[in-house]
Amino acid sequence: MSLKVKNLISIADLSTKEIIMILDLADKMEPIAHSEKPSKLLSGKILSTLFYEPSTRTRLSFESAMARLGGSSITVADVGASSVAKGESLADTIRTVDNYADVIVLRHPQEGAAQWAAEVSRVPIINAGDGAGRHPTQTLLDLSTIRRSQGRLKDLNIAVLGDLRFGRTVHSLSYAITRFTNRLYCIAPPGLELPNEIVMDLREQGKEIIMTRDLKGILPELDVLYVTRIQKERFPTPADYEKVRGVFRVEKSMLQDVKPNLDILHPLPRVDEIAPDVDETPYARYFKQMFHGVLVRMAILSLLLEANVR
Amino acid sequence: MSSIKPKSSKSKPKEKADTLRIQKIQAGTVIDHITAGYALAVLQILGITGQEGDVLSIVMNVQSKRMGKKDIIKVEGREITADEINRIALVAPQATINIIRNYKIFSKMRIEVPDEIIGIVRCENPSCITNNERGIKSHFGVVDRSPVTLRCFYCKRISHHEHLIEQLQGKS
Questions:
Q1: Minimum mean pLDDT range among A95-104, A138-147, B105-114
Q2: H or E element that contains A293
Q3: Which in B14, B100, B129, B168 has the greatest CB count within 10 A?
Q4: Mutation test of the interface with chain B: which of A7, A52, A90, A111, choosing the one with the most B Cβ atoms within 10 A?
Q5: CATH pick for B28-110 out of 3.20.20.10, 3.40.50.300, 3.40.30.10, 3.30.70.140
């Protein structure tokens, strides 16, 4: 069991068969992630996390995944205080860190940074988010959550809601989920719609991309509602952010007529786009989603480090 | 990047009497089949202002069997380089380049937009790693040849024709 690629930069690098392979392997990791079954699969291997932007979940879940499989992690606690602050290029940082680790997980504010890192690195690079670009492991955990909950990925009615312009998780997910479904609903405040090139790409593939602002109207049709945060840090001024904040908010009272199998997902952190009263409904999947992040990252680390997995 | 095959020819440039608007040059470059309306952009890319003192002829929006309408430039005393041809390719992807020596075509080249464009133009995404990191060359895949539209290999952002022209003209 192996991947064709040596790095994980974009979900587009993976074939649909490989995506399924990762999800299958992630499912098998569950007893190890629950501490029910110890593993030495990645014993002696070192993961380095290099985060130029803040992260709680992604970084911790990678470190947890590595530890569960018997490997260890090293990290730069504050990249701002490292050689980067002295003006070191990303390429030089990667060429340094690849001496210390067997795999590097990189989050960087600039789009394309992970691709560049992969070109200069001697060890595999996993993209943990590059600016408003790609975030493939998040997408894989989203797919894993949907498949585990719905029992399939095919022919589901899925809507993405929120900041579709800057939300990198939505970009990757839109490409990935439409490999399995033919239709995608997109709901965004004005100015935060899905970028044109993505819409064009998907439509060229024959997918039906439906732009709507009628959240209440489509809710009863949905199997999955994927909500994202309006990303304050991507707006030029606080006033620009305030204009679109809270335009769409999912509340418990809106969920009266939804399908019983509806899953509400969110990559977290949330601000106020999902009301706390939704947490107690059977539709809230966002916390379970985080656990699937560990499983998927265990699977990816095993495959990229060519561990003997079956 | 362009397909440049020097081809000796003793024949004169084909110009019918009723369409001849500019005189022959003794030595230099004739750029033909420029996308109509883009001759001035091509000159700007080549850094030709007209103040160099050399004979410079520009014809715009003349009829063309192949293109409907086209522009032509004749530059006396200057043979353009392969790098300059590559830059022109992004603006006038169907152009042909004739190098003239002693009133005759010394070599004839047809521009071909390649599959990849490396290091010639910047990505239009300011947050792209190629605009922020030292030692990295811009790298695009060509998604459309006429007008030229590029997709950044790193950030995947599309760079449109208008932006490329502005950049090559030094406006952005």
A1: B105-114
A2: helix A286-304
A3: B129
A4: A111
A5: 3.30.70.140
